[in-house]
Amino acid sequence: MITPKSLYLTIDQGGHASRVMAYDGDGEIVASHSEDLTTHTPQAHFVEHDADQLLTAIRTPATGG
């Protein structure tokens, strides 16, 4: 019988990229993915990101898509 292993999914949302990593119970990285983001600066001291791009950058690697 195969015993399922625990995996821990982490999301690191930075200003220029989204990173998703999966760790096993020993803390070893078993998978990782990084997706660059487009940063918009509509005016001085303002930074914006497209919400759909943020969700896709996280959802795609997290679901294996």
How much strand? 35-45%
Biggest sheet details: 3 strands, antiparallel
- Measure the end-to-end span: 28 Å
Count helical runs. 1
Order the strands across the largest sheet as they lie in space. Answer: 1-2-3
Our Rg estimate from Cα atoms comes to 15 Å
Stretches where pLDDT is under 50 for at least 5 consecutive residues are none
Helix content: 10-25%
* Shape call: elongated
Order of helices and strands: EEEH
Count of individual beta strands: 3
Number of domains: 1
What class would the helix/strand composition place it in?
Answer: alpha+beta
How confident overall, as mean pLDDT?
88
Task: Describe what this molecule looks like in 3D.
- The chain is α+β, with helices and mostly antiparallel strands and 65 residues long.
- It has one domain (7-63).
- It is built from one helix and three strands, in the order E-E-E-H.
- The protein has one helix at 51-63, and strands at 7-13, 17-24, 29-36.
- The protein has a three-stranded antiparallel sheet with strand order 1-2-3, with helices on one face.
- The model has no long low-confidence stretch (mean pLDDT 88).
Topology, element by element:
Blueprint: E1 7-13, E2 17-24, E3 29-36, H1 51-63
Antiparallel strand pairs: 1-2, 2-3
Distinctive features:
ATPase_NBD; single chain; three-stranded antiparallel β-sheet; 65 residues; 1 helix; kinase activity; elongated; FGGY_N; alpha+beta
